[in-house]
Amino acid sequence: MRNLLVIMILTCLPFSVLAQQKDDPRARIIEGVKTITVPGVPGPLCVYGDAFAIAAAPVDGALAPIIAAGAIGKGRVVAFGHEGYFSREALAAADTKRLVRQAISYAAAARKDPTAPIRVAAYNRAGIELLADNACVVTRAERPDLDLKLHDIDVLVIAAGDVRQIDIDPLTKFIERGGGVLCGVPGWGWQSLNTKLILSNDLAANTLFERAGIVWADGTIDVPPGRELNVEQSISPLLNASHAYRALKDAKETKPLSAEDQNIAIATLLRCMESLPNNTFAGELRTLAQADVMSLPVPSAERPLTNAAGLRKLQYTAHVRAIQKAEVDRIRAERSAKIFPGEVADWAPRIARNITIDATIPGWHSTGLYAAPGERIQVAIPGLIPEGNYKGFQVRIGAHSDRLWDLAAWKRSPQVDRVFNIPEPAFFGTGKVTIEVSNAFGGLVYIVVPEGAASAKQLAMIVGGATEAPHFILGKTELKLWQQALRTAPAPWAELQSDKIIITLPSENVRKLDDPTDLMKFWDRVADACADLGTIPRERKRPERYVTDVQISAGYMHAGYPIMTQLDAAPRFVDLASLQRDGEWGMFHEIGHNHQNPDWTFDGTGEVTVNLFTMYVLDTVCTNGGKMHKAMSPESRAKAEAKYKADGTKFEQWKSEPFTALIMYKQLQEAFGWDAYKKVFAEYRELPEDQRPRTDDERRDQWMVRFSRTVGRNLGPFFEYWGIPTSEAARRSIENLPVWMPDAKRQKKV
């Protein structure tokens, strides 16, 4: 049975105040609007041509439109960076309702009778009924599909994800003859649900709205405190890419921009260069790639490429995007590859090697080979391989997968890796099949196995045309071979590998490493400690990866696959004596992130519960507990706790100060030991789906209750002491247990 989709027909009286501002459509839409809510995590929009931004928010520190409007034919459209703006919760917050109402009036301006009520159809957007008041009458109609009688309405409100390719033609005609459409979605959210599609080309709403000069882009805004966003009365015209492009061209010739305006213009154009489909304005931007390659800047750590370079930064961007899309036979070595990730000497032998991978293990499989910048390598697949699912296999050239496009300054090219799909039929031929791949920047060569592939445990391939890289595999590499040949292999990047950890670092850091065996056993113990605390098996579905880089996309280090860190960390990865004695807080912290569980990590503790793993590794792997972070010394803890209490025990402050929050977790560990944490974590792992916390309130309640029952103590007063909100029902459920506090003095303060 097909689900019936609800469509509401909403009748709105026109707003007389809007008629006073015919010359400024944005002013009409934001009249009387000071702040709007921020539902979820909205994404940015690209705006160009005659379209205009209505509201903007920071994305990685640079302003980007999150609400914009434009015209198609006689009609008008308004795009939102999140469909949550049409929800009951959003419309009830701040001035959001007023803005959406006035956006509807703007979109309906071309209706035949401007004195008549505005007829609005809301598709699966029940919150729009909140606009019903003395000026609006809401009726509901049920239809089995989005087969609206578009001739009977003035404005359609719909989530962009609900617009299908077959809707584009009727909706375009509806808008062209004077209809209006309000549409919202976070581009990043759609992309995460459609990983095999391209946001710019495959989101149907982008095809619909691009004629108006608006497309949804990838990325997330920096959500403001309190989830309220100021709607400025004036907004930079440079949020429109067409204006930004003209301004930068003029700045090069006669009209210099301020640093702030330059940053806005560059950020606007970089986003559009990445996000626009193949329309007219995108074509204009692509002409930037025609600049003389030898005249382009070369980013480096010593001379980063910043927004101050203006149009030259855009030219370099267009150049890099072009070479990233180039066919293999047109790829040449990129000049900046000499600086990073590095060049391969002409004298270095190019070799062919038989490799065998366990294709039941997902992720990157190291080959121990390096592709020189711009040189083609061959990956050959022998015929008659074992049956299995080989869809989604890839060849990756380059370990440095972080994209730097959104950063204001680049110490290297913003994208230096390249990935190629291996056609599935290549695995099923009766004879050998060879594919050629290349990367203008060069890099270590990997075979990538997709998640869920049911493939052969022993899959043989041949990789040719590449250079030997230093590559040590714990338990497999012969020490004599390592010492006499492998550690001096000519490639600029090396890897140290076990079944649990793989470290990618410059070859210069391993040239004098006589025996990596004990070092990698240490890193295995780090991984095992994280598994033990998290109560997961020590045997992993794939090894964790650390990659060092001259610049990463966020922070000094960040978690993920791979874990990324800066080049200055490379020597510390191989300093076994220091690792055993002191540990490495940052390195242990990032691998800890890969073991966190959202069920027991409530809002504000993402950078807190991770350090349970950091401290556990220091306690159990390093000598005498390693070197604890200075913020966790007894003196620092006492001072931070006293200040927090003196400031009024505010939960928002607790959430914003990770080391203050960590004191609470450390006190529990000191009183009840690591085994208490293990028991609680194991309990969470065994929870059936219907018992898992679904809201932040439930996460805090369950954490208090489950820990209390595990240790046999009532932690309710302890949570109150620290200002952690919990429900009365949760506190009552543990009243039968004896109260625990770290000491009697604190107990009196509760």
Describe the 3D structure.
With 750 residues, this protein is α+β, with helices and mostly antiparallel strands. The chain folds into five domains: 5-233, no CATH class; 242-325, no CATH class; 326-467; 469-595, Peptidase M60, enhancin-like domain 2 (Collagenase (Catalytic Domain), 3-Layer(aba) Sandwich); 629-749, Peptidase M60, enhancin-like domain 3 (Neutral Protease, domain 2, Orthogonal Bundle). Helices cover 31% and strands 20% of the residues. An eight-stranded mixed β-sheet has the order 4-5-6-10-9-7-1-8, sandwiched between helices. Strands 14, 15, 16, 17, 19, 20, 21 and 22 form an eight-stranded antiparallel β-sheet that branches. Strands 23-24-25-26-28-27 form a six-stranded mixed β-sheet, with helices on one face. Helix 8 packs across helix 9 (259-275) and helix 13 (517-534) packs across helix 17 (610-621). The longest helix is centred in the last third of the chain and has 28 residues, at 658-685. The chain is globular. The two termini are 58 Å apart. The model is unreliable at 1-11, 13-21, 136-145 and 744-750 (pLDDT under 50).
Per-chain topology:
Layout: E1 5-12, H1 25-30, E2 35-37, E3 45-47, E4 52-59, E5 62-72, E6 75-80, H2 88-91, H3 96-107, E7 118-123, E8 136-143, E9 155-159, H4 168-176, E10 180-184, H5 187-193, H6 199-202, H7 204-209, E11 214-216, E12 228-230, H8 241-253, H9 259-275, H10 280-286, E13 305-306, H11 311-325, E14 351-357, E15 363-371, E16 377-381, E17 394-397, E18 409-410, E19 418-421, E20 433-437, E21 443-449, E22 459-468, E23 471-473, H12 479-484, E24 493-497, E25 501-506, H13 517-534, E26 544-549, E27 557-558, E28 563-566, H14 570-573, H15 576-582, H16 585-593, H17 610-621, H18 634-646, H19 651-656, H20 658-685, H21 696-711, H22 716-721, H23 728-732, H24 744-749
Parallel strand pairs: 6-10, 7-9, 9-10, 23-24, 25-26, 26-28
Antiparallel strand pairs: 1-7, 1-8, 2-12, 3-11, 4-5, 5-6, 13-18, 14-22, 15-21, 15-22, 16-20, 16-22, 17-19, 17-21, 24-25, 27-28
Helix pairs in contact: 8-9, 9-11, 13-17, 16-17, 20-21
